[in-house]
Here is the input.
Amino acid sequence: MQHYQSSQLLPTALEIKLLFHNMISSEIHTEQQALEADIAAVKEWWAQPRWRHTKRTYTAEEICMKRGNLKIDYPSSIMARKFWEIVENRWKVCVLESKLFM
Here is the structure.
């Protein structure tokens, strides 16, 4: 951004318009990158074995576009992830044990 001294002329309307356009373009680009990262994170989450039998009628893009910009990590979600890991690990142990005793 240019700073004008009192001896210089004020910026023209075109300069102001271009400056504003560049600022908005930069913000839109940053927001688009954040949206794409969020979509990739949702797709990665859905690819986990936990969701292998889940059928969805919506896309990750639709979900991310309708979300707000405030990220909330619910304690119940954290505990659900921990519980799922315990169940999966126990299942693997049971499967291994059953193969050993066959």
